[in-house]
Amino acid sequence: MCIRDSENGQNALLESPTGTGKTLCILTSVLAWIARQREIYDVASYQDPNFNRLIFCSRTHSQLKQIIHEVKKTCYRPMVSLMASRDFLCNNTKISDLKGIQKTNACRLERTERRCQNFINLNDQGGDIMDTYSYELMDIEDLIGKASENQWCP
Questions:
Q1: d(Cα 84, Cα 103) in Å, to the nearest integer?
Q2: d(C-alpha 117, C-alpha 145), whole Å
Q3: Crossing angle for the helix pair 140-150 and 117-133, nearest 10 degrees?
Q4: DSSP one-letter code for 137
């Protein structure tokens, strides 16, 4: 149904109880459809801005973690961009105890004055990091772990 409606440029409404796999079912259907469209139109790069993209939003980090865990069980490896607040992502140990606007301002100051070694490392290794991790399917906790392990700013 999802693929048929995508082909026809229509919306689909699915109703089913919690825990029945709706999200994964729809997500894999759409990923399969996008992969097929790429084959048909011979689009090699997932970074082609003129081609179909799937934007998946979630209200909580635990929901994102769950769906990434489920997608890892499939044959699909979509490029993923994660967004979260500095409050959650900043791994600079000098300001890790701060919260909210204080942490945001301290993080901005550290980066602006080039005192954050993780941010400096990210800028120095940026291309290498993207080449290494851009197709690795990670949730936010995985990203923070990799960033902390490699001493770069997530």
A1: 14
A2: 16
A3: 120
A4: -
- pTM, two decimals, is 0.71
Contacts of 148 (CB under 8 A, 6+ apart): 91
Give the pair of three-digit tokens for residue 50: 């003129």
User: Would you say 12 and 1 are in contact if contact means Cβ atoms under 8 Å apart?
Assistant: yes
Distances (CA, A) of 113 to 109, 110, 119, 121: 6, 5, 11, 14
Contacts 24+ apart (CB under 8 A), 142-149: 142/68, 143/82, 143/89, 144/89, 144/91, 147/91, 147/118, 148/91
Q: What is the pLDDT of residues 56-114, one digit of tens each?
A: 888 888 888 888 898 889 998 887 888 888 888 888 999 988 999 999 999 999 999 99
Q: Which two three-digit tokens encode residue 118?
A: 């993780």
Which amino acid, residue 125?
Q
Q: With beta carbons less than 8 A apart as the criterion, state whether 2 and 30 touch.
A: yes
* d(C-alpha 140, C-alpha 66), whole Å: 11
